[in-house]
Amino acid sequence: MSHSQFSLLKSKRFGPLFVTQFLGAFNDNIFKNALVILITYFAAEKLSMDPRILVTAAAGIFILPFFLFSALAGQLVDAHEKSGFIRKIKLVEIGLMCLASIGFYLESVNLLMVVLFLLGTQSAFFGPVKYSILPDHLEEDELIGGNALIEAGTFLAILFGTILGGILILKAGGTMYVSLIVLVMAGIGYWSSGSVPEAKAADPDLKINYNIFTETWNIVKHTAGQKDVFLSIIGISWFWLVGFVFLSQFPVYGKEIFGGDEAVVTLFLTTFSIGIGLGSLFCNKLLDGEVSGVYLPLGSFGMSLAILFLWWVSPEAVVVDENNLIGIAEFLSSTQNIAVLLGMLLVSIFGGIYIVPLYAIMQSRCDATYRSRTVAANNILNALFMVASAIATMLMLKMHMDIVDIFLVVGLVNVPVGFLVRRIVRIRRAANAKEEGNV
């Protein structure tokens, strides 16, 4: 049965959840980018510390809670009614944004770092319920469309939040503007969460294991026992590794390769985010609502070819004149630069086609009583892959590799990943054949 994913936005089964998660992602990114800008421009003066170290520490501080608390979060979501759990998380977000406002008012980097850790913790608890509640409210042939909207909305929220946080924090009274916006968005998010329909506990008799280390091992080990689900999680984690490389290196790529200003970097981020959205939405058209991995090789190999094209059309690094950086108009005056944007767009479109089926496969094929813990295992491995991405990128930079060569390495390593995710299709075909043989 064919579904228009946009009709889901009008549905009470999905619309309030979409708004809630969109505003949460928006708040995360407006706060994070405002903090990074604040650190970059004021930390060296106020704290006598290298701002690059603080920015790197900030990234680690936000990711750390996903390692520490995802296992506990997955258990709690499986053991409780999900819509009420969402409202509690959004209420916590309001409190965190109040604390963030105090930190911005005082221009206290230390307090804002604490808020960043707590915000990462809040996100670690929201992740399992955000994805595990979808199969409770959507039919199986709506899962692809629902996940497509979630992914498109997440990247647009990242885009809007990052841009707005960077623009506002440097204006006169910028900390006040950022504080007001995050408070208002948190309030609207809590209001929208009140309309999310109830979703019963998957395992109300679950005994919670509060030992976060043993439980982290337990849920990853349990998930590894379901081959197609675990391969989907590995595929999702790889996507976030690739995305992390591109998003984290766009500022350096824009400045060192093109001599571009911050507006050029914003253009890169916008192009990439729009491409993810287009690819995600187009994926539902390709699959016509069917939860299937048939187009995973297209998405994966398409990303590799697009990255190779991006590497091929990227120019040699320029000698950067800090006082004469080019803007968007001058950047777009070059045919070669337009080809670069096309390459970015293709990378992200194929990325959207690749990522959406993986989430739907993970949600629909895992044990329903273990779904939130499966999503938690996914979040743990996502964080692990992103940390590995950061370490690998730093090592390649230490080896004096150009940014475009780092992109090429990612594209080449992505090729065997395409063959890996093909196994998901084979596993499902084998399972279907076995079921038909038993009939």
Written overview of the protein:
- The protein has 439 residues and is mostly helical.
- Helices cover 81% and strands 0% of the residues.
- The protein contains 16 helices and no strands.
- The radius of gyration is 21 Å and the shape is globular.
- The mean pLDDT is 87.
List the helices and strands and how they pair.
Blueprint: H1 5-8, H2 15-47, H3 51-79, H4 82-106, H5 109-132, H6 134-137, H7 143-169, H8 174-193, H9 212-224, H10 227-258, H11 262-287, H12 296-313, H13 328-332, H14 335-365, H15 371-398, H16 403-438
Describe what is shown at a glance:
This protein has helices at 5-8, 15-47, 51-79, 82-106, 109-132, 134-137, 143-169, 174-193, 212-224, 227-258, 262-287, 296-313, 328-332, 335-365, 371-398, 403-438.
